[in-house]
Each structure stands twice: as C-alpha cells, then as structure tokens.
C-alpha cells in the first residue's frame, strides 16, 4: 500500500542521479565513509592494543590459559576457564530472565497499551536504561539480595535435581543453616544484570514489533483473528529478527557488565556451575577487581582475559548481525 | 521602566551586602589561601577518618578528594602518579607481591596519620538475642578464618565464651576480595603469631608457602568463606539480616557506624580486649618505629612487639596507618601549587584532627609520631611551613612529661574480661546492648562456683573448659552436652537471669513421600485450572458442531 507511491516518487530521482554528483554530495559521502572507517579502525586498534599487551601473559601461560581455573598471575598460574564460564553463566541467567520480561514489556507497549500510557512507559523504559550500573549494583547488593534468598532456597530445595540449581552444603532441614550460602551468587548477579539489559532488549523489540506492516495486521483482523491471534500470526513472526537481534545485543552487554557484578559476587576461581550458590566470577569483574593492584605480569594476564572477552563479544555480535540480516524485520530496520 | 531597573539593582546590592555580612569570613579565608584541590586514594581501613577530616577542612576552602579503593590500589596509583597522595596500611614491598609491585619513580615518604585496631565484626544471635560480647583467643580466630573451625558451637569457641551457649550455626568468614591493607595487617599477625595454621591454609588454597604477608586473601572454593570488595562491602555484608553467623575483619569504626559488635581478642596477659582508643594506644607503646631518618622506610612500623605486648590492656591487632606523600621535589603530577593544600590538610589532621580519632573509632597518634609527621610535612614541595604549637592540638595522648596520657590512663580491664569462667555481659563496638550469659557475667563478681539457692549454673565452668566434669557448686544431675554446652536431661534450671535453652524456630517438616504427592497434586491442579477451561470449552464447542 505505502510502497507504491514511494516508487513513483523515487523513479525521477534515480534518473537525476545520472549526473555526476556535485561537491556537496561528495563531501557528505566522504565524511560518512570516514565515520564508518573510524568505527572499524577503532575496533581494530582496541583489539591490537589488547593483544599486544596480552601477548606476554599468553606466551607465559600457553594453551593452559584456556584450561586453568586459578588466577595467580604472579606465580604463573592463571587461566580463564573459571572466569569465562562464570561470565557466560551470569549472562545466561540474565538473558533467560530479561528476554521474557522484555518481550512482555515490548508487546504490551507496542500492541496493548493505550496511547497516553504508552508514552509514559516508553519514557520509563528509557529511564531504566539510563540508570548507572553502580546504582543497580548497590540496589542489588543492599536490597535485592536479602529478598532473593527465599526464592533461591526454594529453588535449591525442590529443584536440586537440576544440576544448575544444586547448592552443595545446603540443608533445608537445618533451622540454623546459614543463608549466606545463597548470597553473592551467579543467580543474584544475573538478576541484576537482567534488569540492566531488559530495557535495551525491550527497545529493540518494540521497534521491530511496531514496524509490523499495517496491511498484514488488518488482514489478520479481517480473517477474524483476536488481538492475540494477530500478535501471534503477524507481529511475532515479523519481529523475530528484532527479537533475536535484541537478545544478542543484550547478551553482549550482559557479558561485559562490570560494576554491578563486582559489587555482588564473591569471586571464586573454580568452575562454579551451581548458580544459586555463593561464589561466582566474571572476566570484567575480575579486571575491575584486580586492575588497580596488578604488577606488569598480572596486568598482562588481565589484558589476556580482556582479549578473551573481546573475542567472545565479537562472536556474539556477529552471530546476532547475521541472524538479524537474514530475517525480514531486520532487513527492514537496517534499511 | 527605569524605576523597575533601579529597584532590581538595589535589591541585588542589598542581597550581596547581606551575604557578605552573614558569611563574612569565608571570602577572606579563600582570599588568603587559594587552595588547589588534591586527590588521593587507598586504604579503606582509615577511610572513615580521612573522609571526616576532609569534610572538616572544607570550611577553609580545601578540597580533598579521597577514594577508598584499597591500600594496594592506593600504592599503585600513587606509584604511577595517578593521585597526589596515597594511603596504605603497609609500606611498599612488604607483602607477597613485593617483587612485582611498582614503586614510585619520584621521592616519597611515609607519614603516620592515625592509629586503630583491626576489629572482628560479627553477626551472631542466640535465639532472637544478638550476641554482643563474643570473646576469641588468637588461635581460635585464625582457625575460624582458615576454615579449621566451621561451627559456632565448636569447643574452642565455647572455651573462650563459657557464658554463651552458641548455636550450631556455620561460621561464615567474610574476607576482602580486593587488595587490602586490612588483609595485609591481619595476615602479618597470623604469619607472625600462628605461622603453621596460616601456612597450612595457604597451601590448601594453592599459594606458595610460607605464605607470609598477603594483601589478597586466599580463598578455597566450596568453603563457607565469602569474599567481598572494600571495607564497606564486607561490613555491609556482615550487617545484612541474612548473614547471621558471619564474621569479618575491618577497622573498628565500621562496626561503630553499623552498630554491630566486635569480638574481644585475647592478649598475652590472658585478657579479652576490645579495640578501643585506649587499648590500641597501650598496645602501640610496643610498636617499633623505624627511626633512621635517611631510610626510605623512615617511620614505618614493626608490630611484633605489639602482638606480644604483655600489658593486660593491650589490643593485639593494633596498627598505624600511613599516608604516602611526595617529598623534596616536584614530580610529573605533584606541582608546588598543590603543596599548600596537602600541607595544610596534613597539619590539620596531625594536630586538631587527632582529637576526633577516638569518637570516629580510631586512636590518636602519640606525640613522637605527630612530631615526626609534622617534620615530614615540611618536605612536601610547595608547603606553606607552619610552626605548630603542639599544646594547642588537644591531642589526648599528649602530656607535659612526654608520656602517652591516653595509654597511661587507659582503664584496667574488668575481672570478667580475664580468661576464666565468667564473661562480661556488656556490649562491644557499636552494639551496646547486653548479652545475658549463663554464668551471670559481671553481675556477680564472685567468679567461681557461684550457685544461687541450689539451682546451680546451667553451664558450669569446668565443663566449658573442656573437661566435662561437674564441679562442686553445680547441681547434680545437670549433664552438659560437650558439643552444644546445653543442659541435656536433668532438671537443673538456670540461675536468676540465665537462660540456657535456645529457642529455635522450626518449620513443620513433612514426610517426604507425602510432600511429593502434594507437589504432584498441586501441579496437576494448577495445570488443570489453566489448561482445563479452554480445552473443555473447545471440546464442548466441537461436540456441538458435530
């Protein structure tokens, strides 16, 4: 419907472009190319910098860098097996909480909310994204943690058969059992990170949902679909690319989240798959924790951990890019 | 129009004169001293004092920005010229990271700023009553922090606390995850006093032994030990309601601020002492200060004498905190302009600031260190050298005859603080409420075999010392469980104000099979309620059409 008049307008423009483009156009194009190239250049520079700083530690540790769990750089014993697993676990928890939350928020805002409420909600979600992460961290440490213990205990009591929810050393029958075993865990850090990435994911999903073509929506209604039926058959399939892209972007942010995680976790240097249990770790929190107090070797080791995180984030983002590019809504939103 | 303009001008002029009249001196003061802001970073141990002093000198127009990022970070930032001054508990090159540690390339010196005690703040309750009078001896303390003792009802803790029937709760030692001077002070004490326990722990944690002084506390995964960053972090963690059973090491001031108790630590004279200002001052009389003026480590401390100080008022984990200052010459960061601010700030806290040390939870510096500190201030490049009249400082340690008044007049510990069957009931740190003890505590000062009207003490002295034999004074028939310290069987009731039973809230325990059945039923119901109605509706609908 809308594309037909656009094409008729575009046709004469295309003919005009046959003339060699003028000075203004050329300048504009050069500026844009430079901006684009600068982004690439920056990424390459960051990568090269990290790699050159990290190379001495990588040479010292060799392949064991990927398999060692401890972090004692000054005695030459260090690796990212524990911290990288911890990072992925925290991000995993964050995403599995944030995605349903963000999907719900985005669907409500774009499809159900009345016009006036919608504007307020969008502002609130943007505000959520603007709150500094240290505020989330402090809130998580001082407030949320105490309130999540009950949930964590309940999960570990009834779902301990699921390996991730196991808590070693917990005894729900012991009235004197310490509750600290459920604090400073991957789960709580993940929850706080979820709240931080949810608005980002939500905004992208909302954009994708709101671009679902009006004709198809009307078509679904005309065929007798309820609103939910329309959402399911038109909006969700159309927004799939945006959903996946938003999730991946959120994942990228969750992987790199530093200060909130730093404030909450109790760092351990073993692979800790029990997400409800005290003790977690992440690459970025490790860097924040140890950066200020490191000698040259330790600093280089931290840079190496940074390289690992950098590569992981790049992979995630590239994967997200390719998925979004392949989908319909992504193609639309990119154009 | 013109009239309105004149009125506005007049009003503005009146306002300006009024502000001048009201405030008066500040503009004059700023005119006298154009202070350049300086910033520092480091120790969280002494952060509370530095922050208070920094806010005190704000009225003179000085801006001191201080970031409590840990001593290790403070030393590193100072060395790499990121801050104007650093604050650290230990000098450069004293911990296990000495080889890798960067030292400043410019001239620097140590200046003592305040004394204090590394306190052991805990969160523990018996039933609903918060314990505020815990006592610990050195080896018990080390065993707690090295995961040898894991329960609060351990016989070793019981032996220290004969008056308390501590619950079978897990001990959660909370340690620092970042590089910390408090950790360094604590590990210095452990490495010096209990090397075998400390080294065994380090070996289990995968560190090289002998482990010695470390700024980063080694932790073993799977133990109850929890690591948190910064003093504020560990203290806030222990203060949470969920952290019952936790104990951590922080400067005394943190416990005061959070209204939490600290453990009294046993000294060489067999008294359990709290890290108050006088007991820290007494302890530090035995600190050996490096008096070699030319030495790089001039004024640094050797605390071995403090740990073994035989004065019965001693708190053994006392120490001085140090500021790292650039001296003699400008460096890349520290220019002459900053010298005036840093110098005046130093003059302030070395002189007047020390009065506040006690109320903040620290202990004032003695006269010799204040004098040495003031001499160090003179070396700061660009300092506005002042002649400080020491008698005007009103430092509680100063006296006319050169002795340390605070230490001299320090109160003698009470009899109930001595090792023995009686335990003081009074609170410690920021928690001033009393904790009832089963043996009456300081309320009845005849400390042995006290039995009131034949009812007997529920936890009698001898059994708590680990022998398990009832003594003459106690009622026959009251058998005491060696593990919990509670009376089992028998009818021996407690003394007048002693309660030996520990109320514990228990949830009703269900039979496991019944529980499983109930879970399944609940799930089925939930599923039926959500999925059922639409399914039934569809079935009915479909049936009708057919």
TrEMBL record, chain A:
Membrane spanning stretches: 26-51, 78-108, 120-144, 181-202, 259-277, 297-320
Location of the ABC transmembrane type-1 domain: 84-320
Keyword Cell membrane found: yes
InterPro entries (alphabetical): MetI-like (IPR000515), MetI-like_sf (IPR035906), Phosphate_PstC (IPR011864), Phosphate_Transport_Permease (IPR051124)
Alphabetical UniProt keywords: Cell membrane, Membrane, Phosphate transport, Transmembrane, Transmembrane helix, Transport
Location relative to the cell: Cell membrane
Gene3D superfamilies: MetI-like
Membrane topology listed for this record: Multi-pass membrane protein
Signal peptide: none
Record carries keyword Iron: no
First-listed, main subcellular location of the protein, grouped into a coarse class: membrane
Family, as annotated: Belongs to the binding-protein-dependent transport system permease family. CysTW subfamily.
Reported function: Part of the binding-protein-dependent transport system for phosphate; probably responsible for the translocation of the substrate across the membrane.
Name of this chain's protein: Phosphate transport system permease protein
Organism: Paractinoplanes globisporus
Species lineage: Bacteria, Bacillati, Actinomycetota, Actinomycetes, Micromonosporales
Recorded name of the encoding gene: pstC
Automatic annotation (TrEMBL), chain B:
Keyword entries, A-Z: Membrane, Phosphate transport, Signal, Transmembrane, Transmembrane helix, Transport
Bilayer-crossing regions: 516-540
Signal peptide as annotated in the record: 1-31
CDD domains given in the database record: PBP2_PstS
Biased amino acid composition, Polar residues: 398-407
The keyword Secreted belongs to this UniProt entry's keyword annotation: no
Record carries keyword Transport: yes
Ranges of compositional bias, category Low complexity: 435-478
Cited InterPro entries: ABC_phos-bd_PstS (IPR005673), PBP_domain (IPR024370), Phosphate-bind_PstS (IPR050962)
Top-level taxon in the UniProt lineage: Bacteria
Segments forming domain PBP: 32-351
Region (Disordered): 398-492
Assigned protein family: Belongs to the PstS family.
Name assigned to this protein: Phosphate ABC transporter substrate-binding protein PstS
Species: Paractinoplanes globisporus
Name of the gene: pstS
């Amino acid at each position: 419907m809308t594309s037909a008049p656009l094409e008729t307008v575009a046709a004469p423009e295309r003919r005009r472009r046959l003339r060699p483009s003028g000075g203004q156009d050329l300048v504009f194009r050069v500026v844009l190319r430079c901006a684009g190239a600068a982004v690439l250049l920056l990424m390459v520079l960051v990568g090269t910098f990290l790699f050159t700083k990290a190379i001495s530690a990588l040479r010292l540790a060799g392949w064991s860098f990927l398999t060692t769990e401890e972090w004692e750089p000054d005695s030459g014993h260090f690796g990212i097996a524990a911290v990288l697993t911890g990072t992925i676990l925290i991000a995993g928890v964050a995403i599995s909480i944030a995605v349903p939350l963000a999907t719900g928020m985005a669907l409500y805002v774009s499809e159900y909310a009345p016009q006036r409420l919608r504007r307020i909600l969008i502002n609130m979600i943007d505000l959520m994204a603007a709150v500094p992460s240290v505020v989330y961290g402090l809130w998580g440490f001082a407030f949320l943690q105490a309130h999540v213990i009950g949930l964590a205990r309940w999960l570990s009591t009834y779902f301990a058969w699921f390996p991730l929810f196991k808590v070693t050393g917990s005894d729900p029958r012991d009235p004197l059992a310490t509750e600290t075993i459920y604090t400073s865990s991957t789960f709580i850090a993940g929850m706080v990170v979820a709240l931080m990435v949810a608005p980002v994911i939500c905004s992208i999903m909302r954009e994708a949902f709101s671009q679902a073509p009006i004709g198809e929506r009307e078509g679904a209604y005309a065929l007798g679909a309820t609103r939910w039926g329309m959402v399911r058959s038109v909006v969700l399939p159309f927004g799939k690319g945006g959903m996946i892209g938003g999730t991946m972007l959120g994942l990228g942010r969750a992987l790199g989240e530093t200060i909130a995680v730093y404030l909450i976790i109790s760092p351990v240097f073993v692979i800790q798959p029990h997400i409800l249990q005290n003790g977690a770790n992440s690459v970025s929190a490790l860097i924040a924790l140890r950066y200020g107090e490191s000698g040259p070797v330790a600093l280089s080791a931290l840079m190496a951990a940074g390289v690992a995180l950098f590569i992981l984030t790049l992979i995630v983002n590239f994967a997200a890019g390719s998925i979004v590019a392949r989908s319909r809504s992504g193609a639309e939103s990119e154009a | 129009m013109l009239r309105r303009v004149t009125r506005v001008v007049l009003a503005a002029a009146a306002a300006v004169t009024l502000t001048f009249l009201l405030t008066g001196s500040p503009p004059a003061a700023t005119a006298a001293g154009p202070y350049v802001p300086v910033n520092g970073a480091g120790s969280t141990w002494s952060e509370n004092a530095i922050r208070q002093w920094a806010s005190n000198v704000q009225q003179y127009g000085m801006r001191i920005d201080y970031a409590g990022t840990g001593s290790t970070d403070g030393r590193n930032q100072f060395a790499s010229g990121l801050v104007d001054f650093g604050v650290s508990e230990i000098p450069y090159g004293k911990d296990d990271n000495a080889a890798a540690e960067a030292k400043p390339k410019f001239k620097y010196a140590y200046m003592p700023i305040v004394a204090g005690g590394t306190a052991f703040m805990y969160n523990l309750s018996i039933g609903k009553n918060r314990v505020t009078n815990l006592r610990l001896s050195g080896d018990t303390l080390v065993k707690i922090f090295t995961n040898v003792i894991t329960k609060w009802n351990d016989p070793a803790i019981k032996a220290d606390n004969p008056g308390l029937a501590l619950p079978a709760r897990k001990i959660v030692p909370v340690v620092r995850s970042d590089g910390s001077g408090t950790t360094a002070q604590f590990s210095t004490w452990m490495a010096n006093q209990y090397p075998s326990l400390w080294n065994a722990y380090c070996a289990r944690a995968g560190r090289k032994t002998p482990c010695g002084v470390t700024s980063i506390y080694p932790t073993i995964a799977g133990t109850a030990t929890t690591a948190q960053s910064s003093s504020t972090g560990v203290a806030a963690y222990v203060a949470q309601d969920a952290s019952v059973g936790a104990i951590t090491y922080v400067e005394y001031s943190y416990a005061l601020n959070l209204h939490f108790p600290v453990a009294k630590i046993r000294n060489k004279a067999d008294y359990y002492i709290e890290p108050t200002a006088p007991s820290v001052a007494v302890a530090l009389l035995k600190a050996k200060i490096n008096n070699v003026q030319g030495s790089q480590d001039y004024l640094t401390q050797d605390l071995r004498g403090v740990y073994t100080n035989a004065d019965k008022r001693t708190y053994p984990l006392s120490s001085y905190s140090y500021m790292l200052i650039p001296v003699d010459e400008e460096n890349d960061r520290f220019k002459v302009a900053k010298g005036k601010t840093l110098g005046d700030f130093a003059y302030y806290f070395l002189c007047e600031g020390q009065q506040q040390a006690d109320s903040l939870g620290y202990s004032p510096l003695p006269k010799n260190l204040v004098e040495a500190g003031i001499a160090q201030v003179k070396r700061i490049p660009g300092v506005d050298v002042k002649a400080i009249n020491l008698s005007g400082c009103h430092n509680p340690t100063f006296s006319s005859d050169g002795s340390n008044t605070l230490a001299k007049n320090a109160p003698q510990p009470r009899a109930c603080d001595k090792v023995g069957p009686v335990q003081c009931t009074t609170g410690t740190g920021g928690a001033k409420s009393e904790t009832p003890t089963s043996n009456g505590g300081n309320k009845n000062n005849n400390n042995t075999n006290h039995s009131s009207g034949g009812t007997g003490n529920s936890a009698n002295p001898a059994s708590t010392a680990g022998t398990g034999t009832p003594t003459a004074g106690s009622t026959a028939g009251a058998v005491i469980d060696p593990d919990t310290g509670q009376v089992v069987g028998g009818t021996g009731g407690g003394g007048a104000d002693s309660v030996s039973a520990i109320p514990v809230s228990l949830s009703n325990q269900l039979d496991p099979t019944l529980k499983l059945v109930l879970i399944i039923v609940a799930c089925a119901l939930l599923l039926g309620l959500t999925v059922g109605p639409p399914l039934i509706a569809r079935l009915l609908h479909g049936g009708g059409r057919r």
